[in-house]
Design a protein that fits this description.
GO terms for molecular function: kinase activity; methylisocitrate lyase activity. Keywords: Kinase, Pyruvate, Transferase. This is Pyruvate/Phosphoenolpyruvate kinase-like domain-containing protein. It contains 13 helices and eleven strands. Helix 5 packs across helix 6 and helix 8 packs parallel to helix 9. The structure holds alpha-methylisocitric acid. Alpha-methylisocitric acid binds next to helix 3.
């Protein structure tokens, strides 16, 4: 007799034992962790995993509403939204971990979250602490880089990187920490050495990172499509992540081109931040000049709260016998 188990909306399983009647399963499934989901996507498919950059709860909710299969928490966006500052190494572990934890746990059955870990925020003890906190926060994967601690956005000039030995120490610490904690969090090794030392040094650093046990490589700031394609070939079959920053250091590469080049993960750091800036600015300009924001009809509080789980929250209350929303909202 064939038993079919299907995963329904809201993460509930339905069991059909062949009789045509659906039963409540007496086996209980735990939600699969984000790291396991991400790892399976990497190892069991050859898809390009497209991750829109998100930087707060609302941008993450929009990515989830549109059913993206994974998301990326941008450090630049986190720094801009939580600190109101530029991406110059000002966000610390607490800022990054708190933001990542909130986003990664919005929906336990939601898409896995890759989060920026910058330099790891210090020496081996800080890197170990950062990795442990990201694991506990439910982050699925993170990238750690070789810029000096007082780092800057990878698409600005004047970057400086630490020695290869120091970089490998960061990665070794990350790998040992995740192994010690029996975590399958995806470790992404990023190098920013292109500006200062050139392409060959990047490949050398990434090969060493791969040999240390990093799961994925990230060469930051490609200057041409040819270079991006070459890196995939030089490191194959090791999976590479492409960071697409439009109007950044390199050419615009679409998801279609990246897939054809052989990249496995693609993040769009500014996918939410840049449109948010444009949208907020034009609305506030209108307020200033016309005395009204001009929000399109239909976009009232209820609609916006719905994006943020209004119905699920009301259901939790009703399921518990609460009457707080029995007359609607
Ligand atoms: C990927 C990145 O680390 C980020 O924070 O999103 C940034 C993006 C940016 O500031 O352009 C980076 O590329 O350094």
């Amino acid at each position: 007799m064939a038993i079919t188990i299907t995963l329904g909306p809201n993460g509930q399983y339905h069991v059909n034992n062949g009789s045509g009647r659906e039963q409540e399963p007496d086996i209980h499934f735990l939600p699969i962790s984000g790291s396991t989901k991400l790892r399976r996507m990497l190892n069991e498919t050859n898809e390009l995993i497209v991750c829109p950059g998100v930087y707060d709860g609302l941008s993450a909710r929009v990515a989830m509403q549109l059913d993206f299969k994974a998301m990326y928490m941008t450090g630049a966006g986190t720094t801009a939204s939580r600190l109101g500052m530029a991406d110059l190494g000002l966000a610390q572990l607490h800022d990054m971990k708190t933001n990542a934890e909130m986003i990664a746990n919005l929906d336990p059955n939601g898409p896995p979250l890759i989060a920026d870990m910058d330099t790891g925020y210090g020496g081996p003890l800080m890197v170990a602490k950062s990795v442990q906190q990201y694991i506990q926060a439910g982050v699925a994967g993170f990238h750690i880089e070789d810029q000096v601690l007082s780092k800057r956005c990878g698409h600005l000039a004047g970057k400086k990187v630490v020695s290869k030995e120091e970089y490998l120490m960061r990665l070794r610490t990350a790998k040992l920490t995740k192994d010690r904690l029996h975590s399958d969090i995806v470790l992404i090794a990023r190098t920013d050495a292109l500006q200062q030392h050139g392409y060959e040094e990047c490949i050398d650093r990434l090969k060493a990172a791969r040999d240390l046990g990093a799961d994925v490589g990230l060469l930051e700031g490609f200057t041409s499509k040819e270079q991006a394609r070459q890196a995939v070939q030089d490191l194959a079959p090791w999976p590479l992540l492409l960071n697409m920053v439009e109007n950044g250091a390199g050419p615009v590469i679409t998801t279609y081109e990246a897939k054809e080049m052989g990249f496995r993960i693609m993040i769009f750091s500014f996918a939410s931040l840049a449109p948010a800036y444009m949208g907020i600015k034009s609305a506030l300009e209108r307020l200033k000049t016309e005395g009204v924001v001009g929000t399109p009809e239909g976009l009232g509080p209820r609609k916006l709260f719905e994006v943020c789980g209004l119905s699920q929250s009301m259901k939790i209350d009703a399921d518990a016998g609460g009457l707080a929303f029995s007359n609607g909202v």
